[in-house]
Amino acid sequence: MKHVPLLINGEFISSQSDQQIEVTNPANNEVIAKVPCATSNEMEVAIASAKEAFTTWRNVAVPERARLMMRYQALLKEHHDEIAKILSKETGKTFDDAKGDVWRGIEVVEQAMNIPALLMGETVENVARGIDTYSYIQPLGVCAGITPFNFPAMIPLWMFPLAIAAGNTFVLKPSEQDPLTPTRLAELFLEAGAPKGVLNVVHGGAQQVDHLLTHPDIKAVSFVGSVPVGQHIYKTATSHMKRAQCFAGAKNHSVIMPDANKAQVLNSLVGASVGAAGQRCMAISVAVFVGEAKNWIPELAEMIAKVKPGLWNDKEAGYGPLISPKARDRVLSLIAQGKAEGASCLVDGSGFTVPGYEKGNWVGPTVFADVTDDMSIYKEEIFGPVLCCMSVDSLEEAIALVNRNPFGNGTSIFTANGAAARKYQHEIEVGQVGINVPIPVPLPFFSFTGWKNSFYGDLHAYGKQAVRFYTETKTVTSRWFEDDIPHGPNMTISLR
Ligand code: NAD
Prior knowledge:
Layout: E1 2-3, E2 6-8, E3 11-13, E4 20-25, E5 30-36, H1 40-57, H2 62-78, H3 80-91, H4 95-112, H5 115-118, E6 123-128, E7 131-139, E8 142-146, H6 154-165, E9 169-173, H7 180-191, E10 199-201, H8 206-214, E11 218-224, H9 227-239, E12 243-247, E13 252-256, H10 262-274, E14 284-290, H11 297-305, H12 325-340, E15 344-347, E16 366-369, H13 376-379, E17 386-392, H14 395-404, E18 407-408, E19 411-414, H15 418-427, E20 433-435, E21 451-452, E22 455-456, H16 463-469, E23 471-479
Parallel strand pairs: 1-5, 8-9, 8-11, 9-10, 11-12, 13-14, 13-19, 14-17, 16-17, 19-20
Antiparallel strand pairs: 2-3, 4-5, 6-7, 7-23, 12-22, 15-16, 18-21
Helix pairs in contact: 2-4, 2-7, 3-4, 3-7, 4-6, 10-11
Bound molecules: nicotinamide-adenine-dinucleotide.
């Protein structure tokens, strides 16, 4: 039985906590590790270590900080498959999908390698006679990250590399459901040469998170997870005068115009809806068919019905089990509600299981048609392999439907008509839009820009926005006198 350690002040240590959470293999619910809920004292020591490390780390030359990221990127690439294997075993993700999770995290580290350019300020010479103004971008101090279960490599890597490259130190609290992957990421970060205290990893749940949110030495909090927790974290962190960025739940619509390329639409929707067991914040969970495109629903349902869930190393498996029995029960309950509320269940994955792994958290692919916006399966984020199909008569109606939805993480439109695509991208109130691209997750030189109830805060993850989130701007106005001639007092606010 593996006991997950804490990382405090450059050392992996066993927690003294008597509270341990079981980490399970979602394919059979066997316990594979135990993760501690860090004690209050351990939380204090972790934060103090990050605070102490900040005093020296902030002064390390920026190219040297970039070189740490280069060494880290090389190590992550070298250990890519090994990390993906750990990830698969604790999340149930198929090996290929796990590799994608690791890879998308590595891409953010590559962005952090570029930190000198990202930290450039602005200058204007002669803002007044002999006076120059220039700005510097400086780190905040100790930052904290709280991450969800569904991307245990990518989402921690959204946070600590850029924060640390910018000169901050970091305390990470990964999901208690899959802490082994983030632990491996932290081991490799030390191996890359991260000085002690620059990255600390604590474990636990709500209590440990609240410790971070209310601690005066934490300057900024980055969170990814569900809506209720995101709202709690945003309110608590900001009421304790911290910066916060909280990425929350989603309900992502794909709008299918009748002029779209049918084969491309159907192929795209299969993976985007039930891939990763629907446990992606950018999964397409609602397909909105415009006009005659609704005739494609039965064929789509047939294709989705053929997707087989299976074990992480089963090459035929389209996706794995859900993360926990609780997650599975919740999805099954929503499928039952969908049927009870009158949606047509074209493919029903409720009874699915994998022979020999009957205790796993399996849900087969599920497709509903005739879904309306008053049904629970439409209103709730299902976070399972369930696609809701809806039909509307026009693009305008589709846009109004998507805009009424309280979430705004991602959306896509499939069409052959540039004007329809242009109208959609312009009018839609969603932060990430795909045009003939089902899951439009931006690469890290852009930012991950969810809107509405999918995001609480101002500055988003990765890209230039994340650098702004983890830094302060200092603006200097400077004059050097060339002579000793007294200019007399200046009684105005103007520079002269
Ligand atoms: P979750 O909200 O249950 O947990 C996220 C983190 O918050 C975990 O580290 C957990 O320990 C902590 N936490 C849980 N309850 C808490 C509480 N009461 N107080 C303080 N902290 C608490 O989310 P999850 O189930 O791990 O992840 C799935 C959710 O994350 C989905 O809703 C999904 O849409 C969302 N998500 C969003 C994005 C995005 O970018 N918008 C990305 C990935 C996942």
